[in-house]
């Protein structure tokens, strides 16, 4: 079967196509050898069939989830000038606030406002020989009127990084690899990208694209959504709703795992549809990626898995790069043309088409 570049979902021949998002309980990973094996098999199937799952039993207390959601609400409730004072267009590191309609996916505006935070690291010295992705590293911007945000989001970043790495180690086992096979490409400086997001209701937007169809670029995304639906995942017969499950994370596979597994796992395409008039939707996304200076290895899969690997998707509109920094920067430049023009205008990638 010829793979179509945009409809990249393909079910393994042996199993029926999934029509809903599976639910996995992480406590089974530490519940003895038999439970562990069963969990790893389910993890592998969920990640391969649909590429998305609801994670429960993850160990992050409900109170911490509620707290980070409340903080995000407080940020979005700040007066617009306070949010504009930390606008992303001021940051070569793609950190800060983006107003609804300013971010672009598949050439169209996304009707969501958002605030992006990364790891707090020093700016890297720049020379003529520095790779462009080295400009991504640097400080965050923080609103002066909400000092709790810095404390709360950096604490959240540490907690979800730990959870993400635990899951990544489980994925390594599920792919027949040593548990720490990915450590050499994330240790020391994993890419830790938080995005708090508010999708205004239809009365306040000029369309229904909350965020357009896309793949995430990292290893894994761990996302908390509130009670408002809208997240949809590409399935074999159309879009599957990822309905909210209280206390859970929505987890999905990013391009790095697709590349490393030679397409055995797929970074599933997903989107968010704008909420109905009078409602809004809040989500807190965390994208766990590798170090910018790393190269994604091609894992030697066991023969039974290797025979089912489909190769990474070849979408001319979204080439996947094994060089981590290059792959990540690709997505950032495309989503934020204003930042691209201001700080990356010297790159061929940002030249007007
Ligand atoms: O808000 C959501 O539920 C999904 C967000 C998303 O897919 C993204 O920001 O990459
Ligand atoms: Fe996404």
UniProtKB/TrEMBL annotation:
Every Fe2OG dioxygenase domain range: 190-290
Cofactor: Fe(2+)
Keyword presence, Nucleus: no
Keywords: Dioxygenase, Ethylene biosynthesis, Iron, Metal-binding, Oxidoreductase, Plasmid
InterPro entries: DIOX_N, IPNS-like_FE2OG_OXY, IPNS-like_sf, Iron_ascorbate_oxido_reductase, Oxoglu/Fe-dep_dioxygenase_dom
EC numbers on record: 1.13.12.19, 1.14.20.7
GO biological process, alphabetically ordered: ethylene biosynthetic process
A Pfam family matched in the record: 2OG-FeII_Oxy
Family: Belongs to the iron/ascorbate-dependent oxidoreductase family.
Annotated protein name in UniProt: 2-oxoglutarate-dependent ethylene/succinate-forming enzyme
């Amino acid at each position: 079967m010829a793979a179509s570049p945009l409809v990249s979902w393909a079910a393994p021949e042996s199993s029926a196509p999934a029509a809903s998002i599976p639910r996995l309980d992480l406590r089974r990973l530490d519940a003895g050898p038999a439970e562990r094996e069963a969990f790893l098999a389910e993890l592998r199937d969920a990640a391969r069939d649909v590429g998305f799952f609801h994670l429960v039993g993850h160990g992050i207390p409900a109170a911490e989830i509620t707290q980070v959601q409340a903080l995000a609400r407080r940020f979005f409730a700040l007066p617009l000038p306070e949010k504009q004072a930390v606008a992303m267009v001021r940051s070569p590191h793609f950190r800060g606030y983006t107003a609804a309609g300013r971010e672009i996916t598949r050439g169209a505006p996304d009707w969501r406002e958002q605030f992006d935070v990364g790891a707090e690291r020093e700016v890297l010295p720049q020379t003529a020989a520095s790779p462009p992705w080295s400009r991504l590293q640097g400080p965050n911007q923080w609103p002066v009127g909400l000092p709790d945000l810095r404390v709360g989001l950096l604490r959240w970043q540490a907690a979800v990084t730990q959870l993400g790495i635990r899951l990544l180690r489980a994925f390594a086992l599920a792919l027949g690899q040593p548990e720490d096979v990915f450590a050499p490409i994330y240790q020391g400086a994993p890419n830790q990208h938080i995005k708090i997001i508010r999708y205004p209701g239809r009365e306040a937007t000029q369309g229904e694209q909350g965020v357009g169809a896309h793949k995430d670029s990292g290893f894994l995304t761990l996302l908390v959504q509130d009670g408002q639906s809208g997240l949809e995942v590409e399935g074999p017969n159309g879009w599957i709703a990822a309905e909210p499950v209280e206390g859970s994370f929505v987890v999905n596979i990013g391009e790095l795992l697709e590349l490393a597994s030679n397409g055995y796992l797929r970074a599933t395409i997903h989107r968010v549809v704008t909420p109905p008039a009078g409602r809004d939707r809040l989500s807190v996304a965390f994208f766990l990626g590798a170090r910018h200076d790393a190269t994604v290895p091609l894992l030697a899969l066991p023969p039974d898995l290797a025979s089912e690997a489909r190769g990474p998707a070849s979408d001319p509109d979204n080439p996947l790069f094994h060089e981590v920094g290059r792959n990540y920067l690709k997505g950032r430049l495309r989503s934020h043309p204003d930042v691209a023009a201001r700080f990356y205008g010297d790159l061929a990638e940002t030249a007007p088409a």
